Amino acid sequence: MTSNIARILARLAALAKPTGRCWLCLEASHSPLCATCQGDLPAKGSRCRQCGEAGPAQCRACAQKAPPFDEVHFGVPYGPPLDALIHRFKYQRHWWLDAPLCQPLLAALAGVDRPDCLVPVPLHWSRRLWRGFNQAHLLAHHLGQALDLEVNPRLLRRQRATRQQQGLGRQARQRNLSRAFKLCGPVPAHVALVDDVMTTGTTAATLARLLKQAGCQKVQLWCLARA
Ligand SMILES: [Zn+2]
Ligand SMILES: [Zn+2]
Residue 2 pLDDT > 60, yes or no? Predict the structure, then answer.
């Protein structure tokens, strides 16, 4: 999707937004989620600094073999009430939900190292055509505007349609993803990959490895929710 289309969608989204109300409880609110609803979101608890897994500051998996990405930042643990909003955003084309969905992530990003650019996790063109848009690109666009960061949707390309990752084992996922992505252009020193939900992190790891092999020094993953 070109940046122009993302901009047009963002403008349409702005028109459809209910102004002055919280998206979850519909009470009057200046932000997309009111302070009460934001406070009621499930707590993240203690997390691994590198992969975001619940538990100690360094999980056993990262201690044994560090993943190629350096940090994971996310808004909420995946689950109610935002999972329903994420589903509507992704599958029912409710693009205007970008603001309430990004709010917890933006709060989590306070004080975090700023990347040189945001790179949405790419969709294969056939799936983008089917869905009508790449949800990660819309999120990156919203975050880029909020934080005044450049968005580069063309740095990574998915050159092969991959099967749905859901329900596949770890090895099958890796096989499925190998050679699915291609780097298109010079790599900045610090990149933040943007996606809606992180499940196993296999996709992020594949992309981070590709970026690091091309000289990228730091890769963060930013996502709305982490499973
Ligand atoms: Zn509310
Ligand atoms: Zn970890």
Answer: no
How much distance in Å is there from the Cα of 180 to the middle of ligand 1? 40
Percent of the chain's residues with pLDDT above 70: 89
The residues spanned by each domain of the chain are: 3-162+169-226
Q: How far is the CA of 196 from the centre of ligand 2 (A)?
A: 19
The class of domain 3-162+169-226 in CATH terms is alpha beta
pLDDT (0 to 100) of residue 166 = 67
Q: What is the mean pLDDT of residues 10-24?
A: 72
| Beta strand pairing call for 190-198 and 117-120 | parallel
Ligand approaching nearest to the C-alpha of 33:
1
Please report the pLDDT score of residue 12 as a whole number: 65
Q: How far is the CA of 33 from the centre of ligand 1 (A)?
A: 5
Distances (CA, A) of 13 to 5, 17, 44, 90, 168: 12, 6, 29, 14, 34
Q: Which residues touch 154 (CB under 8 Å, ≥6 apart)? A: 184, 185
pLDDT at 35: 93
